[in-house]
Amino acid sequence: KNIFQEQIKGQFNQLFNKNTPKAFNSMLIKGGTIVNADHKFQGDVLIENGKIQQVFLPEQKIHTQRNFNKIIDASGKLVMPGGIDPHCHLEFSFMDTTTVDDFDIGTRAAVAGGTTTFIDFIIPGSNPLKYAYNDWRTRADKKVHCDYSLHCAINDWNEDISKEMEEIVKLGVTSFKLYTAYKGTYFFQNDERMLQIFQRCKELGAVIMVHAENGELIEYNQERLIKQGVTGPEGHPLSRSDEIEAEATHRVITIANTINVPLYVVHVMKRAAADEIVRAKRKGFVVFAEALAAGLGVDGRHYWDEDWDTAAKFVMSPAIDDDPKTKEYEMRLLATHDLDTTATDNCAFSKAQKRLGHDCFDKIPNGCNGIEDRMSVIWTNGVGKGVITPSDFVRVTSANTAKIFNMYPRKGIIQAGSDADLIIFDTEATKTISAKTHHHAGDHTIFEGVKVKGLTQTTISGGRIVYDEGVVKSTPGSGKYISRLPYGYAYEKIPALDAQRRIKETPVDRSGIKPSSKSLEE
Ligand code: URP
Ligand code: ZN
Ligand code: ZN
């Protein structure tokens, strides 16, 4: 009932709030370079009623005789699919506090940076999954400025949860997340449970996602470091070595491969963990992996900053690698399709909230901002440095996420029939990122002082201009929930792998063979 009321409220906002930008009946984006994940070309985009109606090549003059409600001149600019951020925590209660970016402020920041869809995580804790789903929908529907979808964490395991998983798959939640980190909390899952939950995901056609770090070893290291007197933010990366992430990554890949279920490893931060992904892909396993704007844009040397607040703002898990070369290493893996997507894990806390861990690093709320700056940070460090192409940029900022989480081609491509979620991107525009000017709620940013070249000039979500030239123009509740079907792109290879395994695992028929006299003597 609540969801229904909130949806009506969202639609009412859209229809009657005079500040809400209307979806123009017909809008033409003219003269830009359209960039999709496979190629770029000159063309015009016709949008009608929230959808891309047609893409015209320059030689197709038909549309010049028509009238449009709105024409945007995109000459000299790129026209790309709006960003899709597959990993966010808005309005999330975690480590005794709640993130500062709620669904309203967080999605203002999203559209200001060119992101038009994000996927948040339902964290049910001890609640039934359907109840938690309703809670997330009730809070998000009335606030979001762009479209969103939902993954769901599994924080416990029993028959009821197994049944509830099916219920929420029917509501469009077709990806489930487990944590091998955060020992001593309901997030942490052991191998036996993972095996069972992975099996259940396969029965339901859902993608399994894992936060992979060895929680047992982190706990041991934390206790050891604290005894040694290491209580500042530097204790955070020191307690989470490269091997701690790599071991858990290897382990969850092995479990997923044993079940033969598609696995998506969230926030790969260390090179050793990334190498585990590469190895698994070379073996033909169905493994997808995500890099973060944090790991591609900054490095973890800040944990040793003398100023406590500065060091603490980078505390997130896994820790950002303190080796400055990792940024480029991961960008190269995005170029070679070894890493698939880029996300933010936007989970932002204020300075005051970070100070909850002033006495000891293990109490600093884990998480950083990113949803506003992901697109520009990746363009600057990827395309700007010649490591990835503009089409690669689209592949890793929207298309691959849309495919893996089964929203493609509704999202992640500019073509007739797709949602009119796109950005007009100015590759020459520059800015210096600062908490003084960002749209996030936080009073600090991990990207403070970072210079980016390549900015979103205009963001269009469902045919509505939601951001233009520095101004957010949408209203809360104007985005939509995106329900996703199971057994999507991520499952394409699974039947073939199952079949290969069945052939390999056929028992040898020895019924007609008599034991030789020699073996009988033996
Ligand atoms: O530090 C992080 N990543 N905070 C958010 C919770 C999680 O681990 O996903
Ligand atoms: Zn995580
Ligand atoms: Zn997360």
UniProtKB/TrEMBL annotation:
Its EC number is 3.5.1.6, 3.5.2.2. Pathway: Amino-acid biosynthesis; beta-alanine biosynthesis. It is an enzyme of class 3 (hydrolase). One of its GO terms (cellular component) is cytosol. GO terms for molecular function: beta-ureidopropionase activity; dihydropyrimidinase activity; metal ion binding. GO terms for biological process: pyrimidine nucleobase catabolic process. Keywords: Coiled coil, Hydrolase, Metal-binding, Zinc. Carbamylation allows a single lysine to coordinate two divalent metal cations. The modification N6-carboxylysine is found at residue 177. It comes from the Eukaryota. Its cofactor is Zn(2+). It catalyses: 3-(carbamoylamino)propanoate + H2O + 2 H(+) = beta-alanine + NH4(+) + CO2; 3-(carbamoylamino)-2-methylpropanoate + H2O + 2 H(+) = (R)-3-amino-2-methylpropanoate + NH4(+) + CO2; 5,6-dihydrouracil + H2O = 3-(carbamoylamino)propanoate + H(+). Belongs to the carbon-nitrogen hydrolase superfamily. BUP family. Belongs to the metallo-dependent hydrolases superfamily. Hydantoinase/dihydropyrimidinase family. Homotetramer. This is Beta-ureidopropionase. The gene is Contig13807.g14726. The chain holds residues 9 to 530 of 957 of the full protein.
